[in-house]
Amino acid sequence: MSPGEKLDPLPDTFILQPPVFHPVVPYVTTIFGGLRAGKMVVLQGAVPLNARRFQVDFQCGCSLHPRPDIAIHFNPRFHTTKPHVICNTLRGGHWQAEARWPHLALQKGASFLILFLFGNEEMKVSVNGQHFLHYRYQLPLSRVDTLGIYGDILVTAVGFLNISPFVEGGSEYPVGHPFLLKSPSLEVPCSRALPQGLWPGQVIIVRGLVLPEPKDFTLSLLDEAAHVPVTLRASFTDRTLAWVSRWGRKKLILAPFLFYPQRFFEVLLLCQEGELKLALSGQGVGATSLGQQALERLRELRISGSVQLYCVHY
């Protein structure tokens, strides 16, 4: 890509906002494209030992005066005799009837991974992989364009993702594995063993950031004989994405090209009977057939190219 060259326009659903690492609290940021059903916000961090309360607000704007409406106010409180969570909505400067959940799933001094999943009519929240609450919208989700984090909380990462389209490979909550910060295991090229091969329902998740001057990006699956039955390859010269067989045959993937300099990306591969389904940034874009026996004989995942990896999971 030459300097000054314009990026091809992408549908909003394919554009992922980059994660934010170690933000200083209070932290307020714009949510690119606003909230909509099918989006997910991941909050990774820890609760200080002396914490009294913190809040995560999904706001309709970021003004100080007047105070913006808050469509969803998520407020864990630790200082009471019975720690709990409050959810509420601020409309026109007035709080609505609050909803309360006892048996707080967060603990002082402990780390956490919170997923906020946004559906058509309500938000669902999981804490450390377990469903915790659901809260019905009292303001249109389309009005939300700002995330605010306040109070006694240490945040290591904030991620903005789309819910996986692969219902077959998930449960009520999609995979929201922590972002690994400067982990030696995520240095590129990256190799991960697949001791049992790939089986129906298994999902490979790769998230990362394209480097400023990218040359190539490949995700390869190797079998027990070190052959490469299939490779997912992004070409930065002609901006194409393709499956490449062990014999070098290319099958172009008809989807928007996501791998641009300094742009965040997510690749999901779902193993089904004899094939791999592909999703980019939460949007399904097709599949490639290998045969179930070939999938079961796979033993290694390799990732190389001009990317910084934040998450590799399977």
TrEMBL record:
Subcellular location: Nucleus
Main location: nucleus
PROSITE patterns named among the record's database cross-references: GALECTIN
Entry's Gene Ontology BP terms: intrinsic apoptotic signaling pathway
CDD domains: GLECT
Keywords: Apoptosis, Lectin, Nucleus, Repeat
Protein name: Galectin
Native species: Delphinapterus leucas
